[in-house]
Amino acid sequence: MTGGGLIDHASREAYTHLMQTPTQARDLAQDLVARALAAGATAADAVFACDASTDVQIRLGALEDVQRSESAAIGLRVFDGKRSASVSGADVTAAGLATLAERAVAMARLAPEDAYAGLAPEELLARGPLEPLDLDDGLDPDPALLRDLAERCEEAARAVTGVTNSEGGSAGAVRSVMALATSHGFTGSYGGSRYGIGASVLAGGESAMERDSASHTVRFLSDLESPEDIGRRAGERAVARLGAGKISSGAMPVVFDPRAGGSLIGSLIGAISGGAIARKTSFLLDKRGTAIFDSAVTILDDPHRPRGLRSRRFDGEGLPTRPQRLIDQGVLTGWLMDSAAARQLGEQPTGHAARGISGAPSTGPSNVHMAAGRETPAALMAGIGTGVYITELIGMGVNGVTGDYSRGASGFIIRDGHLAEPISEITIASNLIDMFAALIPANDLSFRYAVNVPTLRIDGMMVASS
């Protein structure tokens, strides 16, 4: 629903009745698994997900868009021995589920055999009651409240001196439910809420215009940062980018703002996924149990963080999750594995299976963060004569096989230990093995995203300015 009016109560009720409770979602998934076995599958698992969202967009103080949407889908994976197939659909009526099950079994019988296919080991499944992780505040905010938050956020951004235009302010709320059932004894489900505010504005004139933004996403409405603070930060970031300078190309220290530094963790996660290790396509293939970071660096995966954006008690195959150190005082502790990758490697799955509605599970982390270091960001930069402070990374120039790293970037020049003029259209390059070994974390860790890092310094990177 879009346009100039807010969603009325009747419309919201029409959407809301389609949502399933966690118990109803679990029952649907179990029903589909039972139908698959009745249709001839030797094993099966099913996942059901639904969500309802409300989003409000404001631009230049006027209501630009209001949307209320709801989606629900169910996915089924069936096995005929070592043959498997996956199907998905949105029809959760008895007839729809029966058709989905029959189609999946027929497809599996035509599929090639896969020696590593199968459900997670039964003896490793999560058992007993699963304690909640405080992921749902139970609210369904009125669109009028979301409009007020979006208006206040954009107004604060536009009030910053130097801001000349706006791409808009936004506020949204999502309620979701996920359930998983397997034919060998696991059932689980949970609900969650999510709220977000953001603004994107422009500063300067047509000949020299810069854009930047700020946002905040949380599980509980009460945890949202002030919309005025978010908007003000968006405006100040855009203005700070005006007057870009130049820097000579060469090797120098690079400091990553926490907004940009989290992407380095993404490169690490990709390299230690079981699939990459099994395919021998990881630059960390022979590094398990060795120090790849300084001893001051510890990186943790914590699926049990209360109100965490990726918190979960069980993974996409029904295995229990647990907090663990991916990097322990610089040492790479092991791989993240779903069951298929674990079988291929002759090891045990680690509770890191990620699951969508369609297809087989893949590998994915939960809430990941790098532990804070000892020095402040200012102290981290104090000894830098010339360097760059990166606030934004562009492009995907990372080779997962070799670790070669080259990305476009923008941010600020560091001169004599202090931030100086902004800089854009630069390229930073190195190899991730060298970057990890040289990385130093600051002490300013805060938890705002699914992946969180403090300010990071890496010496010796090549910087090229256009």
Question: What does it look like?
Answer:
Residues 249-464 form the Metalloprotease TldD/E C-terminal domain. It comes from Blastomonas aquatica. Residues 53-108 form the Metalloprotease TldD/E N-terminal domain. Residues 348-370 are annotated as: Disordered. Belongs to the peptidase U62 family. By secondary structure, this protein is α+β, with helices and mostly antiparallel strands. It has two domains: 9-234, PmbA/TldD superfamily (PmbA/TldD fold, 2-Layer Sandwich), CATH 3.30.2290; 243-466, no CATH class. Helices cover 24% and strands 35% of the residues. The chain contains ten helices and 19 strands. The strands form four sheets. Strands 3-2-1-4-5-6 form a six-stranded antiparallel beta sheet. A hairpin with a 2-residue loop joins strand 2 and strand 3. Helix 2 (22-38) crosses helix 3 (94-110). The radius of gyration is 24 Å and the shape is globular. The model is unreliable at 1-5 and 9-17 (pLDDT under 50).
List the helices and strands and how they pair.
Layout (H helix, E strand, L loop, with lengths): L8 H8 L5 H17 L4 E17 L2 E19 L2 E7 L4 H17 L32 H16 L4 E20 L4 E17 L6 E9 L8 H14 L9 E7 L1 H14 L2 H6 L19 E3 L22 E5 L2 E2 L6 H7 L7 E2 L7 E2 L4 E3 L6 H5 L4 E9 L9 E12 L2 E14 H7 L1 E2 L9 E2 L3 E10 L1
Parallel strand pairs: 7-14, 13-18
Antiparallel strand pairs: 1-2, 1-4, 2-3, 4-5, 5-6, 7-19, 8-9, 8-13, 9-10, 11-12, 14-15, 15-16, 16-19, 17-19
Helix pairs in contact: 2-3, 4-5
